[in-house]
Amino acid sequence: MTDPLVTIQNVTKTFEHEGRSLEVLKGIDLQIDRGEMVTIVGPSGAGKSTLLHLIGTLDLPTEGRILFGGRDVTRLGSSDLAEFRNRSIGFVFQFHHLLPEFTALENVMMPGLIQGGRRLEGRARQLLDEVGLTDRLTHRPGELSGGEQQRVALARALLMKPQLVLADEPTGNLDSQTSSAVQSLIFDLNQRHGITFLIVTHSRDFAAMMPRRVSMKDGRIDSDERRPQPPENQGKPT
Amino acid sequence: MSQPRPLGFWAAVLCGFGILHGAAVLVFGATSPLWFQASIGDDLLWVRLAIAWATAQLTLALLSTAVLRRAAGLPRGTRGRARIMGLATTTGLHAAITTVSMGILLWAARVSIGHVLGGTIASLLFGLTRLAYSDLDLDWVPTLYHAATTLQSLTAALMVILGVSCWFLIPVTRRQRFWWGFDAALVVAFLAVSFSFPLSPVDGDDASLLRAVIRMTLTTVFALRFSLRAIGPLLSAFERIGFRTMVAARHLRAKKTGFLAASGTLSILAVAVSSCMLISVLSVMGGFRADLKKKILGNHAHIVVDRVSEEIDDWQPLLERTRQTEGVVAATPFLQVEVMVSSLSNRAGAILRGIDPETVSDVTDLAHNLTHGKLEHLQHPERILDSSIVTTPAGPIDAMIQGAERTAARGLPAEAKEDAMPGLIVGQELARALRLVVGDRVTVVSPRGDLGPTGPIPKTRPFRIAGIFYSGMYEYDMKHAYIDLGVAQSFLRSQGRISGIEVKVEDVERAPAMAALLASTIGEDGLRVRDWKMMNRQLFGALALEKLAMFITLGIAVLIAGFSVFGTLTLLVQEKRREVGILKAMGTPARGVIRIFVIEGLMIGSAGGLMGLGLGFVLTFAAEHFGIRMNPEVYYIDKLPVHLDPAEFALVGAATVVVCLAATLFPAYQASRVRPVDALRYD
User: Do A53 and B677 touch (CB under 8 A)?
Assistant: First the structure.
């Protein structure tokens, strides 16, 4: 399929801070195809998270366009944006960011609830089952371990069957055992559901496993490597 | 279970007992003169009180010793040890003070026996604590008594505070079990009280008043506990409605940081107190208005038909036409003129009204308002003297003073001739000013007299008091006197004319429209038709203005409560910033975020509003049914009038909700402006 899922065209982002402007992104061009597994690596302050936020429409670029399936998402109105984020994007954050007052099941169901009353409880249960948390449904985030919380966040990101899941250091504060469990879960989900993943990570091991690795430095794309021979866990494009 | 539990069974009992006893002492202390008064002359009540008191002190002393010994055995630094020891010490001290002071008082009573002849223990004690018999060298007794009661109140207050703080040492599960027990007992008590105790007391019966108060108190506590129990299920119901109410209800339910929890509780209380105040004051103002309206309508007709400057001639057909008009219940003619009434001892100006005794009762409450005498005596003055013997006079002292005068007046040889004297009904205040009772003789001086050589000579005529009325309005009671219409016409030489017609209509509130209708149907040149609202426009206008001013002033209190809701919500938004960021990242539109916080604010507002209205209802209900006594010499009403208007409750509720809604808008807007990137960047 030649039609790319995300096209980033000459995107720059400048932050104003105490009267001085700080150019975080200095012209990014990037294409992500459907079903791809892309990782962004680079030193701190390279602009990885900012790029992720721009793609997820949590922030607007200073210049440039971001096309999602051919649609320019930088020009959407606020309610269209909300709708777009709800249906097409799934977020997994480093600090998982679950809602503390709600149970695991309710957290996973939340995007469906936001969307308007559809509870999608069956699908939420199924997803929690898939990430191995069948017996943690009624637990609050505070009663779950870090790895469990991250898996709940992953299940939540997948509830609305988004086309793209953005993950900002999903294994950032997990021990090596739980992070490899989460990693293999991500590969597994990509393989079975063909979901496109864009993952920012500091973990060399994780990055090394990814079929495509974009490395950033100082607000620019430094290199964009694709593995010539995809490993056995490369997702099949839909 | 490694840590020893500081609060044993007896300590828990002491805690509960301490709270109850402390509260009881505070209530008892505040009302002690009443108890003293009540127990004077009733030694049985006094003995009962003394036994209950002594038992309570003994129990407290035993409990506090036991608990103190156990608490002292606990290792230092155990959580709650200091509190329990404090409670036990305070309780012991309280019991000791009470016992010692009562002992001294009783000894003093023994010493002073004989100072109250035939008195009771209570009256003896009352004399000791209030007066101290100077010849007995016991003048230190009142000082001791006051010092002891002050110390008792202080220790009681301390007991309540320490008891409440010890209460939280009890494990949660036990506290829950206690509340279940408490609520079960409460339900039983509530049902029992609802079936056996009256809602409003019988007048003058203290026992029924006490029962009614107990019933209302229990019902209020029951309603309070019930609503507390209902909060959980209610929030759950909200959660099922939809996403926004679900998030809002969860936010309110979640354990918050201390300051926010305090702020939330305070804003609910602020809304409650201000709306309670507003509705109570409005109800009292409404009560005054209703009272005034009732009195005005009782004394005056709904509509008065008259001429501007002259009397009405040939009024019979006019009266007939008025009576036949649709919506008119009754009509009665009257003749009115200002006169001077003079008794043996005094004289006063009055408005003399000639009325038709047969039909006047259909229009005004005059017959109903008569406290002495009868309306029919106007037509049959010869019956006055027969009944005046059994009629109780207005006041015993008045009667004593006037007794001699009256017998002198009545003992006149020309009694047979005097029987022909026509009857006159006066108001209570006029009767008091002229020192009159039923059967007394007065002279009425009319300005419409004959023309003499030096100008008009006032015409006088003797009347006999046929009745005294009490309308509740000073102006009427002081200024009005009634006589038979025929007598008035001959006395005033009006040649059969009348001043006007008083009309009663079906619907009081529609009187203005009826007045217009009457004016068009019986319309005649120079006829004036006025309704009661028009005639008392200034009075009601002033009342309405006063009420509006009150509404605005107290509405500002509600507004300030709204500021508190504003503050709480701003804090809440700050605390939930990260969650708002998450919700927005997951695709909640700005509208949705606004609604979530508006719902939260409305929940706080309506909780406070409902509480305030409930409290206001209880207060006004109590004032209406139990009656808050007022000094009739000052206010001319014996109890505070209260009028519960459902429309006003709805208005205050709506105003509260609107204020809270307005208070939520800005914080909610702030929440909707939270950028997920900023909220999620750092944890």
Answer: yes
